[in-house]
Amino acid sequence: MIFRVLDPTPEKVAAIGNPAPRLDTLRGKTVGLISNGKEGSKGFFAHMEDVLRTQYGVANVVLRTKPNYSAPAPAGILGEIKSWDAVISGIGD
Questions:
Q1: 63, 49 in Cβ contact below 8 A?
Q2: Is the pTM of this model over 0.85?
Q3: Is 76 helix (H, G, I), strand (E, B) or coil?
Q4: In whole angstroms, what is the distance from residue 73 CA to residue 67 CA?
Q5: CA pair distance 92, 45, nearest whole angstrom
Q6: In DSSP terms, which residues pair with 90 in a beta bridge?
Q7: Rounded-to-integer distance, Cα 60 and Cα 54, Å
Q8: DSSP of 7-54, one letter per residue?
Q9: What is the pLDDT of residues 35-74, one digit of tens each?
Q10: Where are the domains of the chain?
């Protein structure tokens, strides 16, 4: 009997980017919230906006909803991210 062992690891290691620099504070910043559009995300993001504004002093909260919960955010939303100081992406069921 012959046993054949296959190694599933890739020959090349994928490039890993660096995390964005951490913000010193959220006070006065713009935070984008990206929802997957499922029903459960509405209440979550409403509460999140309240917490960001009242407890962390966030100046602007931008809520965007993806048109398809299982697909990546469309180019229009991705283009907006550049003008935000921080992004929170969430799901809800």
A1: yes
A2: no
A3: helix
A4: 8
A5: 10
A6: 35
A7: 12
A8: --S-SSPPP-PPPPPPPS--TT-EEEEEE---THHHHHHHHHHHHHHH
A9: 998 888 888 999 999 999 999 999 999 999 999 888 889 9
A10: 30-90
The span from the CA of 28 to the CA of 81, in Å, is 17
Collect all residues with Cβ–Cβ distance below 8 Å to 53 and sequence separation of at least 6: 61
Q: Which residue has the tokens 């009242």?
A: 54
State the CB neighbour count (10 A cutoff) for residue 44.
16
Distance CA 27, CA 53 (A): 8
DSSP letter at 87 equals E
Cα–Cα distance for residue pair 15/2, rounded to 1 Å: 36
